[in-house]
Design brief:
four-stranded antiparallel β-sheet, single chain, elongated, six-stranded mixed β-sheet, about 35% strand, alpha+beta, Ribosomal Protein S5, domain 2, about 260 residues, 12 strands
Amino acid sequence: MITMDAMDIVKANHIRSMVAQGNREDGRKANDFRNIFIKTGMMPNAEGSAQVQLGKTTVLAGVKLQIEEPMDDTPMQGNLMMQAELLPLASETYETGPPSADAIEFGRVVDRGIRHGKCIDMESLFIEEKKVWAVFVDLYVLNFDGNLFDAGTMAAMAALMNTKVPKVENGEAVRTERIQKLKIDNIVTSTTFAKIKDKIILDPSGDEEIAADCRLSIATDHEKVRSMQKGKSGGIFKNEIEEMLGVSFNKHEELKDILTKAQV
C-alpha cells in the first residue's frame, strides 16, 4: 500500500492542481500511455520470458513448465499458476518477507485477466492420462513508478507468447529440446485509470497514483471485458466507467500490436 508522508502530500496537491487544469507532470494527454518497451527471451533457463518497461515501471516475467497431475475437475487440461514478487530494490516502500497484500493483489489481478480471457489453450497442455503441463508464471517488479497491473499483464502475456514447450520422453520433460510454441488462443491487455477529483487519466505514474481518489483496471480482448479491479476508496460514476471502457477497447489493438511485434 502506498503511504503518504509530508513530501507525498505536497506532490499530491501539485498533481491535483495540474490535472484539474488539464495538464500532467510529464506532458502526456489524459489518455496517453507512457513509452512501452518489451524485450523477450531474457531468461534462457525459462521456457519463456519477457521484460516490460512502462515509463520507469519495469516488470520481468518468467514462465516455467512442469509435468503434474491435472485438477480433478479438468482431467484433460493443464494448470496455470501465477505469483508476483515486489522486490525491495524496486521501491523504498517494498520490504522483504512474506508476500504483501499489494503483491497478492498484483498477481491475482494479472492472473484473472489472462485466465478469464482464456489466453492459453489449456487442453493443448494434456500429455497423457494423469499427466499435464502446469504453467507457472512468476512476476518480478524491478522498478516501480505506478501502474503495475498494465505492465504486469503485458509482461505475463509477452512471456507466455514467448514460451516454448519442452519435448516429453517416457513421461519426462527433456528441457534441452523445446519443440513447439505454447498455444495461445487469445491476447488480453490491461488499461488502468486514475480518477483525480473529476478528471480521469490513463496509465498513472507513481505520483499520480498517490494523488488519485480511486483507480480502475480493465482487462479486455478485442470484444469482451475479461476482468475489472477497483482500488482506493473514491467513487466512480456510470458514465465515467463507460468512458474508460471505450478507451480500454481502443487501446487494446495498440497494445496487442506492441506485444505481437515484440515476438519477432
